Amino acid sequence: MFLLFLLLLLLPPQANPPSLDYTEDLAALVSLNEASVLHVLRQRYQSQLPYTFSGPHLVALRPVPSTASSPGKVQRHRMSPHIFAVAQRAYWDMLAQRQDQAIVALGRSNTGKTTACQNILEYLVATAGSVDNRVTVEKIQAVFTVLRAFGTVSAGPNRASTRFSMVLALDFSASGHVTAAHLQTMLLERARVAQQPEGEGTFNVFSQMLAGLGLDQRSTLHLHQMAENSCFGIRASLKGEEKREASAAFAQLQAALGTLGVEAAEQEVLWRVLAGIYHLGAAGVCKVGRKQFLKFEWANRAADVLGCEAEELSTAVFKHHLQRILEQATAGAHLEEPPDGPKLSGVECLEGMAAGLYEELFAAVVMLVNRSFSSSQLSTASLMVVDTPGFLSPRHQKRKRAATFEEFCHNYGQERLQGLFYRASLESEVGRYQEENVEVPFDLPELLPASMVALVDQNLSQVIRRLGGGGADPQGLLWILDEEALMQGSSDSRALDRLCSAFGKEGKAGGEKQGVLRRCEQPLQFEVAHRLGKDPIRYDATGWVSKAKWNLSVQNAIQLLQQSKIGALRKVFLPRAQVPLLCRSVAGWEGHSQQALKRSGCLRKTFSGSFATVRRRSVCAQIKLQLDALSNLVKRSRIHFLHCLDPGTPEAPRPPTEVSEAAPGPAWDVPALRAQLSGSLILEALRLHRIGYADRMELTHFRRRFQVLAQPEMKKFTSAYELPDEKKALEELFRALDLEKKSVALGHTQVLEAACLMLLACLLGDAPSTSDPLGRSF
């Protein structure tokens, strides 16, 4: 009996016919389970077909580099699985419904999300066309070249790992042409300028600039002599091949800025700020005694390229209390902000200035991009593409170190977006069936992304009640750090003790098997069960309380730039003077089109709430508010999800196959893919899609549109003098059309259809509209 049981385990699950091994939509599988989904994905991936539909969404395995990126010219309802198919669907939905659309990429880091987003935008611009040639494919390519330089870092095998979140929106006219584009960014990992994990680098633009500047520019920026050491870890490329690649990348960056209309004087401003950060790192700071620069020669160079006096720079970096007194005397009244913040060390002050300068520089780059895309043309709707850093774990890259605070924040952002997928694909669908009194045999999963999100940013009284804990209301990690940062004598160990006592496996928030947090044996390290517990990540809490402190040097950076003696530099950064302090972490407030003003208004509403007013000077509050703003911006649109999966590299070599003549296929890590499938709720959403009703239409709209297919039966319901009984009329229409009972359901206010809407549209002769560009091309 035991052998029979083992045999059943080894046998494949309830098999699907071989004809479905390469099915384009996982919803078409006869037997839907984890093993059958993995089998189809593997068959397609090994045949260089990395894209597969998962109901209304798309699953993308990291494409093979030689794969041709072409969806083929097909009819609207017969699009092959491809990222272009997602773009087409979102575009048609936007034109048909006059509603904003959003395409959101989810998944681990280094799975091709940024490249997919770029391809989607290029395809839409190339196919739909621009009204006044304000938005072109060349400009989209230039934007991503600039963002890869200023916003990506070298991290292990990924030499361009994204370290910021962005929303790039295309505005469309009523005829379906692109009128403008608008870029907004948030959650920039500004601390990366001064602190990098072991084996990783700072933002790529530094090495590119140091390798590609000409001799005259080096002399102007005092970069003719490189520093032997930098406390920021910024170094020029030493190896010949690396230096040539960095120099070529810098030439591409300059060309991209020129394509976006950035003048040579404005580019010089960007290099000045980067050089100033480099010189600050070379200047260093005295770790004993008074807070001051260690090497005044390099500090003087930093002051010169930034257009200020050396004493003015020193005051902005170290002497915050003196600067506040001078500002009070100049203003002639008491300032709203208190004169002092938390006590900071000299190293924290210097790192804060570098982070503040880079944050303002990045915002200036976004402003220059939006200036190139701005237009006064009227627009009716927008299509947004959302790209964020994927789930970051050193374990995914076969590294032994623990994750950092910045990686924790990016993972928290992915959890928030995963929560949007849960609400859009599962919770709202089940709620809609309940409202319409339509019975669908489906139960929501017990494990929810909200539990992980609540661990970070909320009071978890509701989680405690569900888990059967006590009545205490422990705070999330962000608020524990926020409180500890304001207390004298606080420490990382104390913050971790508070967190583990509330949410650890032995804590109040759950039993031994239910905790979402586990304290590790290593000091100041803990493990968080991300992605519904399927992808645990180990973190090192060293220095987290320090990173939660409000750093006045960051705040002083913008004043230093706006008061510069260099006119061109001052001109670039003055437009940011009107941005409130709490909103400076978000870039892209500019924009004069109607759609851009709507998006900026949505962000302002988030940052002007009572919570934001109370916590204006809180680093942790800024992190939460930025993700609140991103979520609110996406939720006002209809969302299309792109699940990017990492096929991985197996830790052990695979055994040889019986057919030795076959070429070895790409790597396929089954445990990693199982964790990604389970943690992203793809199967649950697919099951609900199969047994549910994908399309919906209001009762009156459905009757008026399709009653022409049964005119004799529906003639009695078309009287102009009395309102028909919609439900009775629709029941008569269903009988006349001989629709299957499982394919259509009649709700209180809507008709829910599983697969008949497309058939009925074909009977009516509906086709893609020839008034829109995509309809003409197919």
Note the overall shape: globular
**Backbone CA Rg:** 28 Å
Unreliable stretches = 4-11, 65-74, 333-339, 460-472, 507-513, 650-664, 767-772
Number of strands: 16
Secondary structure: helix percent:
40-55%
Q: Give the mean pLDDT.
A: 84
The main sheet orders its strands as 1-2-13-3-9-6-7
Distance between the termini: 58 Å
Structural class: alpha+beta
Keywords: Actin-binding, ATP-binding, Motor protein, Myosin, Nucleotide-binding, Signal
GO biological process, one term: actin filament organization
GO molecular function, one term: actin filament binding
Signal peptide: 1-15
Structural account:
By secondary structure, the protein is α+β, with helices and mostly antiparallel strands. The protein is 47% helix and 11% strand. The protein is built from 31 helices and 16 strands. The chain has a 7-stranded mixed beta sheet with strand order 1-2-13-3-9-6-7, sandwiched between helices. It has a 3-stranded antiparallel beta sheet with strand order 5-4-8. A hairpin with a 3-residue loop joins β15 and β16. α3 (83-97) packs across α4, α6 crosses α8 (240-259) and α10 crosses α11. Mean pLDDT is 84; it is low at 4-11, 65-74, 333-339, 460-472, 507-513, 650-664 and 767-772. ATP binds at residues 107-114. Pfam families: Myosin_head. Residues 21-766 form the Myosin motor domain. This is Myosin XVIIIB. Belongs to the TRAFAC class myosin-kinesin ATPase superfamily. Myosin family.
